Write a sequence for this structure.
């Protein structure tokens, strides 16, 4: 009886973590649709590949200079650690926002200035 409760609790916990992760993936689709930066760079970054915009082929690059940037304290693909969400990988930096894929918490969008001021994430050596 007790073992059954533990199994049910574990299954519910797993479902909740999966729901949070899936919701974060949906948020990334929304960010792609709303990005003012190079869409090719966004997609390649999503899959862990670095790309220096502009691509010259997406609607945003056709419209003029893109808003995406790669300079600053957080490099694409770098590993960071958050005190609550654990370790993750920097996937996107744009318009003062940092997008990190945390292994258990999914994608999280963080205000870069707050991250720096509060020390919310630290590099993983």
């Amino acid at each position: 009886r007790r073992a059954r409760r533990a199994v049910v609790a574990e299954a519910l916990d797993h479902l909740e973590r999966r729901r949070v992760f899936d919701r974060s993936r949906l948020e990334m689709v929304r960010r792609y649709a709303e990005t003012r930066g190079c869409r090719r760079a966004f997609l390649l970054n999503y899959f862990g590949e670095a790309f220096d915009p502009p691509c010259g082929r997406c609607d945003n690059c056709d419209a003029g200079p893109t808003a995406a940037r790669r300079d600053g304290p957080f490099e694409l693909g770098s590993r960071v650690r958050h005190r609550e969400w654990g370790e993750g990988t920097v996937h996107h930096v744009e318009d003062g926002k940092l997008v990190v894929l945390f292994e258990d918490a999914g994608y999280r969008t963080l205000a870069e200035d707050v991250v720096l001021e509060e020390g919310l994430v630290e590099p993983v050596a």
